[in-house]
Every structure is written in structure tokens, then in C-alpha cells.
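re the bet — no i am not wrong, look at it urself. input seq straight from the record:
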Amino acid sequence: MVLGGSTEQPKITVYGAPWCPDWKQSKQFLSEQRIRFNWVNIDDDEEGRNKFQELNDGMQIIPTIVFEDGPILVEPSNADLAAKLGINPKAKRKYYDLIIVGSGPAGLTTALYAAREGNEPM
């Protein structure tokens, strides 16, 4: 299964199992960043499980994330994934006049009123 956004991203394969919270965290991070990836459920995919065990020298370390340019990340944190993908987690400014969280009716209304007052989006 392929999840995420544009086709410009490197090919990424995430090996894991649905019962593993670290696997869920990595999948969530990649999805939130709109990074395309293939995921292999090692509980259901025997060929994937064999490749996964080969990558980990027979050990079962979840998640194992393989990038097309060679590197393999084992049990990466979100910071590790961000660094590998070139995502800068730091804000561009020290402070902002307005931050809108959410895109529901309240968030959209706030954005409209802010734009009327001359606040520019970042």
C-alpha cells in the first residue's frame, strides 16, 4: 500500500506490524509530512518478513525503514526521520502574531478576519 503525497519523494519502505506502537508512530509521521511510502506488514507478508529479517540479521526490530538511496533506519524517532528527509522542525521566526490551529469553521473564520486586518500568512 502506498500512502502520502507527491511522486517526487524517494522510495521508502516501512517494515512493521500493526500491533507495534513505534510502527504506527513512523507511519503517522510520514503521512503527516505527505511523504510517499510503501508499508509491509510482516505478520501478513511472508516475502516481506523474509526481506525484513535479512535486513536485520534475523532480528525482529520494528519499524525498519529502508530508503532507495541505501540507508536503513531501525526504530527511528520522528527527529531521526525528519533529519533523513531534510525536514527542518524549527520555526522560521522566533514569534508569530497569530497561529491558527485547525481548518474547521473557527479556523477559517479566524483566517479571514486576520487577513482583513493585514496579517499575512506564512
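see?? The mean pLDDT is 86. told u. also The radius of gyration is 19 Å. so pay up
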